[in-house]
Amino acid sequence: MALAKQISQTTDGHVVGGQRLARRRWPLVSVILGVLTALTMSLSIWLIFVYTPIDALQGETQRILYFHVPTAWAGMLSFVIMAGLGIIYLFKPDERLDWLARASAEVGVVFLTITLILGATWGKPIWGAWWVWDARLTATLILWFMYVGYLMLRSYMGRTVESARGGAVIGIIGAIDVPIIYLSVNWWRGQHPVTQIGTQGALPPQAVLTIMVALVAFTLLYAFMMVQAYQLQRLQTLAQRLRIQVE
Amino acid sequence: MRMTRVFCLQIWAILWKDIRYELRSKQTWLGMGMFALLVLVIFNFTFDLHPDTVAAIAPGALWVAFIFASLLGLGRTVAAEREQTSLDRLLLTPVDRKAIYLAKLLGNLLFIGVVEIVALPVFAILFNLPIWQGSTLLTLILIVILGALGIASVGTLFSVLAAATQARELLLPILVFPLVVPVVISAVRATSVVLVPSVNEPPWLSLLLAFDVIFLSASTLLFQYVIED
Amino acid sequence: MSKLADQGSLLPANTESADVQAIEVHNLKKSYAFKPVLRNLSLTLPHGQRMALLGANGTGKTTLLRILVGLSKAGSGTVAINGWDSRYALQEIRQSIGFVAHQPYLYEELTVLENLLFFGQLYAVPRARERAMVLLERVGMARRVNERVRALSRGQVQRVAWARALLHQPSLLLLDEPETGLDQDGSVLIDTLLAEYAAHGGSILFTTHQLERALALSDQVVIINGGKVVYQHETVDLTLTDLRQTYQGIYGGKQV
Hints:
Oligomer: heterotrimer
Shape of chain A: globular
Number of domains of chain A: 1
Distance between the termini of chain B: 30 Å
Number of strands of chain A: 0
Structural class of chain B: mainly alpha
Number of domains of chain B: 1
Number of strands of chain B: 0
CATH topology of chain A: Four Helix Bundle (Hemerythrin (Met), subunit A)
Number of helices of chain A: 8
Radius of gyration of chain B: 18 Å
Helix content of chain A: over 70%
Largest interface: A-B, 32 and 33 residues
Strand content of chain B: under 5%
Helix content of chain B: over 70%
Radius of gyration of chain A: 21 Å
Largest sheet of chain B: none
CATH architecture of chain A: Up-down Bundle
């Protein structure tokens, strides 16, 4: 920190670094989100493991779904956010938008990985197979690949404007692509019987409540992690900037 | 009106330049063609084809060969531009950026298309497929061209991005494969419908065309953002 | 001059009106990978004038030229060429600039003539072949038109690059150390070309490390350091000794 301060003095204010910027952003937001996440997450774990009745057919396995669905939601939400930020970035290039988009991708790929693992764990006892090439699963898998491609490209290209723009382009094309993939896999699978996902029919009210709370909890978790990842992106950029100043 | 004419002339100029360049270094053409043929040969062994299974496997084999071969070719046009002074030579001139994209796309499409159309009869002979009636052959060629267009439209966009990194050969397929899944699905299904007519299939050829239009327009609009500094 | 028939004229007949500045840069800033290269650079080149841009390596000369020709975008600030604002009229700007840099911006596998014809198409030059031949004659490459650029020497490539830059009759020439790689004949040649181009009313901005050339070939000398203009002077009442002293004063004891 002393170094940063010193540098910002020596180069007549041109350094964007320094103590002020290195400070944590939105400390209050971060704390509030953290507390809310902890509360709702505890509540939702209690609901999932104690409150809600066990499904007659699926047994204990059903509890996986209460985690699987919210992580999938968070994973897809972050892709939509990433693509949306990409569109805004192309019209109004602001590095903060890019930090946010990249943070979203990093958080999203974690959620989506968990989704895929949980889905497979659930599928094995229920469907008798770890994996089924149905539209939803395929689209999710492709989405995961897009995240990986995005993050690889970003890490290869470094923190440049081109990298940010390339990321925005991938996000936009990907967002256009995912629904198309979903539809085309659906058509492709058209004549084949698809194993129905078990949530068909009326769910008991307790299950609905549980899944709702879980969705809220995971959305809060996503928001909390986004703030942290954003902060990390910002500090990494800052550190790189300072390093260049020192050289 | 004059704008359109200039636009087309510029596309043609860049395309013609690329073609001449390519003709002077024949490696890529030959390489892509040989690669596609080898994949077909390998498939013949890996699947141990029987007359009754060949119609089910052949379209997949053909498209796997085409996709890999086209990715080999995709990095090439833009990589050649990047090599020495990057795309600057073109960016320096008052050429519409969409014209640069379309010219590069047409170039890629031409190279991929030629290799595929040459590989197609070889494929039919090796797999002993009845494709020689006029309408079947024409439909197949149409599918091949539309499939190549879909792959090339996304591929041209991303090859520029990948070319800016050290890991060009690695990154290009990782970026392009997931995105072209719809094109691949519809091209493979359309091919198998041609080989073994079946009922109740969605109109794969029209879907393929629709996907092409979507990818082409999105990529044309986004291209300027990946090339400008 | 006699060789230059209508087809070979270095300038378009309708040059921009004299009251428009050839280059107008205000508060230009640009960073690469977070490293500020240009900081609040402002510069004005009146129409028909020649300006020499001096500065040690890494002071932002090349970056400035890249922004002026439209290869890089300005970080902030405004750039106007011949009255065209770079944010809205990049294509018009590109059409009105000729650029010679370290890189020749030619295609190695194409022949000299093919290169010029290709760029002629991109710039929509009318009767490009005749014009290309006249220009190649001017730069002394007329006998090499059918050789591939790959086969030429560095100096010959540079000559072809000159022909390429003049092909579309630009009203502004931007030159990044134009003398590098040229032999004695080549230097004399480009000096003649520059003089003639200026006599026809063209505007020139060039960078160089040679103070003598800067003084001899320009109406104004500008020294930039740290991404800013630190010195600007008319060459009419400037002696080489003064310039050298100023330059060494700015860059310390560095050898010029």
